[in-house]
Design goal:
Strand order of the largest sheet: 1-2-3-6-7
Radius of gyration: 15 Å
Low-confidence stretches: none
Mean pLDDT: 89
Number of helices: 4
Length: 148
């Protein structure tokens, strides 16, 4: 029971942190596109919609990339396509704890393919089951980001 409670506390803290990061991205977007909005709730296909451009944005946080040098890009969870394999977003924004990296999903696939990266399976912090993801070196991904 204690482990379940700790997992719930960790999940809640991670959720709040994620919402703060989404809000900061939304604030940046609203400087130029004031109608942009953030979506909340579980199982949403994207985090932010910008009606002025008709684009959808997924926001990811990977502060641990500062330690590991890699950005985690999930492609499967619970035996089903997830993350990059199921995205409906036009852009992904990775928050590294220092900066925001804007990238189109097809450019992530291009990065993975050109650099012959192989997916790995692991259990992430706060997860109970393993996921499959690419560990993309941050410096390699930087070659594919957008200047927004």
């Amino acid at each position: 029971v204690c482990e379940d409670r700790q997992e719930m506390i960790t999940f809640e803290a991670d959720l709040k942190e994620g919402q703060k990061i989404e809000d900061s991205v939304l604030s940046m977007i609203r400087v130029k596109y004031p109608l942009a909005e953030r979506f909340t709730g579980k199982c949403k296909p994207y985090d932010i919609y910008v009606p002025e451009l008709n684009i959808y944005i997924e926001v990811k946080s990977d502060k641990k990339s500062q330690e590991t040098g890699n950005i985690v890009i999930e492609v499967e969870m619970f035996g089903k396509p997830s993350g990059l394999n199921s995205t409906k977003s036009d852009y992904w924004v990775f928050y590294t704890g220092i900066n925001y990296l804007w990238i189109k999903p097809f450019r992530i696939w291009e990065c993975v393919s050109r650099n012959m990266l192989k997916p790995v399976e692991f259990v992430g912090k706060g997860d109970t089951q393993s996921k499959i993801a690419y560990l993309v070196p941050t410096q390699v991904l930087m070659e594919y980001i957008e200047n927004v």
